[in-house]
Amino acid sequence: MFPQRSKYVFYLSTRSKSLYGIHESNNAYNLVVHEFQVREALPVTVFTSREALITASWIHSTVSDFLVRDDVYNKRFFDAFYLQGPEGLAMAGDADSLLKSFGTSQVFWALSQHNTTLPDGPYFATSSGLHRAWRLYEDHTNSFVLPTIPSANDANVYEALPASGSDLYGAMQIAVPSRLFYQPTPEQPLAGYRIGVKDQYDMKGIITTFGSRSYAATYPLSNMTSGVIQHLLDKGAIVVGKTKLSVFANAWFSIAEWPDYSLPFSYLSPGASSAGSGVSLAAYDWLDITIGEDTGGSMRFPAAQNGVYGIRSTKNSTNDTATAFGPFDVASHFARDVDSFNTFGAVLYGQSGYRNYILYAREYWANINPNYTAPCEEYVQNPEAFLGVNHFKEDYFAKFGRYPYTTLNAASDPSFTPQNATLGEIGHTLQSEYQTFYPRYFPSAKEETCSAAIVVFPFNGDGGNPWYRDSNISYTVAGSAPALPGYISWNYLSVMNESPEMAVPVGTVKYQSRVSLMEEEFPATVEIQGADGCDFMLMNLVRAVAYERGLKKGVQTGSRMH
């Protein structure tokens, strides 16, 4: 049933099959035992009062708070109220007058002998009982493969929601629950988080397409949920839909390379295979977190292209990741602000300290559009100041025109940071040699601070230039600045070393759009890399720097980051 109310459309969740005993009040609120008798779904606000006397000021304060905190709740739920509270619950005369001014038609009182307390929030009343309200949003960027809702009988089993949109683009509807229903706890810190999941992960009761119609047609509904997704469900997250990916999670960037399911909409390329997760989070306020996966940039490119936070996790830091390329695939997540990013990260990874070394590859930065590197350079000054990094080598070079003599272990000495690790120093890298080479110049694990250093570099699909969705892409470097012959791209450092890498939106770059013929902006992103196992250290560092240095702590949805 989809009753239309103003600009809101709601899905009637029948999961609880409520059948609560109800008292209906009529006239002077005389209590009469009564089951719900309604001809159509009646919007109802559920309240819980700690005091025995309900006053007008309390009702006004509570509904005002609901309207601010929740996008599902609106004034149509003033039609009726269901009141819960201590023994002897009553309503003051001014509260009666206030509800009449709201246009409230009915007030229901919870039976005292029923010890079940409903979560506060918006519901629909039918003859069968109370049902939680879900708001439907149109997926106008076409980022989702399908919307999902928990099944009526088991919150760990999901089903597809057959709800199509009404716009000209054939957008489907994504159902989201009220935020008022959930309160985070130590056991469920993610309670009520609305998440989208890359359609590379299995979810029990839902088809997995892997970006391929043929794959979807070959296999039945999944009979189990991927371990990383189940872990998030256990911690309280709500999966509202499965997001699009390129065929078998290959890193395809343009329209022609998404033959089965269309590329999520953006005039610029939305990034690699986790594009659905990146675009949806950048576009929709009603979505909190999205889950992706990274092989050679599948998360990092969408994070950079869409101006959101993302992290390629340490290999095996999360279990049971759906794989396309076996040993290189890792789980990842996207967020719009440092706080929710860290809250989610704390559930997935451990905690650790900081280290005051920054590795800075100037040869790589020199190949990037200076308009792109400018906000990146400005951002890097903040973690340098936060960590207390000094620039002895840079200052020495400026004065004497040469670098000072250092030992082979200079990368471990704070007086010689940031270490100037160049592409030449990491040349001729083969995977068999890589694990031996990498620790000489790049982060290694430290017990006290987790990572001995961090690596910082700009990240963009086309050398710091706008990257259109219909562009021909060169795959020689997987979308970063041209690498020298025989050298590995920066894009693969964390892949080969199995270490975490975080995408941090740091600003915007202005450009003249060939689509709108106007000046537009696209995001500038810095990548920060740490030692394996230091996933949460990177997230915590970025959050601490934002608060300590007074930086922006998040981005907004839409065509502008801020």
From TrEMBL:
Residues in Amidase domain copies: 186-350
Any Pfam family hit: DUF8016
Limits of the Scytalone dehydratase-like protein Arp1 N-terminal domain: 39-129
Top-level taxon in the UniProt lineage: Eukaryota
PANTHER family for the chain: AMIDASE 1 (PTHR46310)
Name the UniProt record assigns to this protein: Uncharacterized protein
